[in-house]
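Technical annex, item 7. During the second reporting period the consortium partners agreed on a shared format for inverse folding records so that results from different sites could be compared directly. Each record opens with the tokenized structure and is followed by the designed sequence. A conforming record, contributed by the partner at site C, is shown below for reference.
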């Protein structure tokens, strides 16, 4: 009746939402069709830059989502946070609408506009096991990198989540992928002083020789962050004790710099050269 009396189908409320946003929230297919039939703007954005399709993803309104896409809704519009409807639906664990979006062209590997997170990065960050399994089963790129170059495996290690680490590795995640600092997950686990995960990674073929952008191995990191257990594990696993970083420093230099006598003694007992000089001509003794 209101429409027949000239009501504006694109009128916006204080949140800049149109009647079509409201129909999407209520999953009212009939109202959505009526509004669209009278010229409702399908891709109208509210104050959060969310389209009606974003709203259907939040509210699991699959009936309206079908109507919107049938009438040409843009499946690749970002909201204010840089998220697409596919990111939203997975985060909300609305897998039926996620399936629908994917079947109608949503890219499961799409990244958020600003963070460059995929839905898998977010699922790992939020601790959502079901979403992780859903995304992997639908073929998401498990090694996709965010704006910092971190894969989902990096984030799982940051969060010390062994369950997710196991799931990702079982499904082919690259254990030796580097972020934009050149860090592998082994560098991160050692820096976090997480010996259980460090041991797990070493047992699953993490490259102990890998060096970050500063030329540091995980042994340098263990010395720098006073991680005695990791140092012992890495040495027993065959890491090169006197590998030099880009400044010519060995792990012994790192231990001396923080007066870490325990790791220093471990390194020396395994043959570390106490006379080794860095690029500035300093031995570990000079760094102490």
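Designed sequence (site C submission):
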């Amino acid at each position: 009746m209101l429409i027949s009396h000239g009501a504006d189908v694109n009128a916006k409320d204080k949140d800049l939402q149109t009647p079509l946003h409201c129909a999407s929230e209520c999953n009212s297919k009939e109202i959505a069709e009526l509004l669209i039939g009278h010229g409702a703007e399908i891709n109208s954005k509210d104050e959060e830059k969310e389209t009606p399709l974003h709203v259907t993803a939040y509210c699991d309104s699959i009936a309206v989502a079908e109507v919107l896409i049938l009438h040409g809704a843009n499946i690749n519009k970002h909201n204010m946070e840089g998220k697409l409807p596919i990111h939203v639906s997975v985060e909300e664990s609305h897998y039926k609408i996620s399936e629908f979006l994917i079947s109608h062209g949503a890219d499961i590997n799409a990244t958020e506009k600003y963070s460059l997170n995929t839905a898998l990065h977010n699922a790992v960050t939020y601790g959502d096991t079901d979403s992780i399994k859903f995304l992997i089963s639908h073929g998401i790129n498990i090694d996709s990198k965010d704006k910092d170059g971190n894969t989902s495996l990096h984030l799982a290690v940051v969060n010390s989540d062994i369950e997710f680490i196991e799931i990702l590795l079982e499904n082919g995640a690259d254990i030796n992928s580097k972020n934009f600092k050149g860090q592998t997950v082994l560098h991160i686990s050692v820096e976090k002083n997480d010996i259980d995960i460090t041991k797990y990674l070493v047992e699953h073929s993490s490259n102990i020789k890998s060096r970050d952008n500063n030329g540091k191995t995980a042994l340098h990191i263990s010395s720098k962050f006073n991680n005695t257990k990791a140092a012992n594990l890495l040495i027993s696993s065959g890491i090169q004790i006197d590998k030099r970083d880009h400044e010519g420093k060995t792990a012994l230099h790192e231990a001396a710099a923080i007066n870490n006598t325990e790791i220093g003694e471990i390194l020396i007992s395994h043959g570390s050269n106490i006379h080794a000089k860095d690029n500035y001509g300093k031995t570990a003794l000079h760094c102490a």
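Residues 1-107 form a domain with the Serine Threonine Protein Phosphatase 5, Tetratricopeptide repeat fold (CATH 1.25.40.20). The chain has a mean pLDDT of 95. All partners now use this format for quarterly exchanges.
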